[in-house]
Specification:
Largest sheet: 2 strands, antiparallel
Number of helices: 4
Strand content: under 5%
Low-confidence stretches: none
Number of strands: 2
Mean pLDDT: 85
Structural class: mainly alpha
Length: 136
């Protein structure tokens, strides 16, 4: 016996037969419908020519759908590639920034200046004052 999942009761033989008959009738109706659509009497030159604009429109929509899909996939690939480029450029920026900070320290500048023959001053700079005397 089959159970009714809604009421949790067993279905009687009569109800089961009625359901089976209903399902079989609907299956036959579907078969008949499909046969009637694709029968040689229904497909005539006039019917094909009459529906040609609709078929062309559906084909055009299919082409639009396919091209839109390709465009979307290409855009997603481009976004992914640009994201990878941004990450790589971020890494380059961080490494160059750290290298610049290291090279701009006083000790590194002194080492590079020493190779050029320049020496670091040990005493602080002095201020030179010029006194201009006015002529009377």
């Amino acid at each position: 016996m089959k159970r009714n999942t809604i009421k949790q009761k067993e279905l009687s033989e009569e109800v089961q037969e009625e359901l089976q008959d209903t399902v079989e009738e609907k299956a036959e109706e579907t078969k008949d419908f499909l046969k009637s659509i694709f029968s040689p009497q229904k497909i005539t030159t006039y019917a094909v020519v009459k529906n040609l604009p609709f078929v062309a429109f559906v084909a055009f929509l299919a082409l639009l759908y396919i091209s839109n899909r390709h465009l979307a996939e290409r855009t997603v690939r481009q976004i992914d590639r640009l994201g990878k480029d941004v990450k790589e450029l971020g890494w380059d920026y961080k490494s160059l920034s750290a290298e610049l900070m290291k090279r701009s320290t006083q000790s590194e500048i002194a080492k590079r200046a020493d190779t050029l023959g320049l020496k670091e001053r040990k005493e602080p700079p002095i201020k030179i004052e010029v006194i201009i005397e006015e002529k009377k």
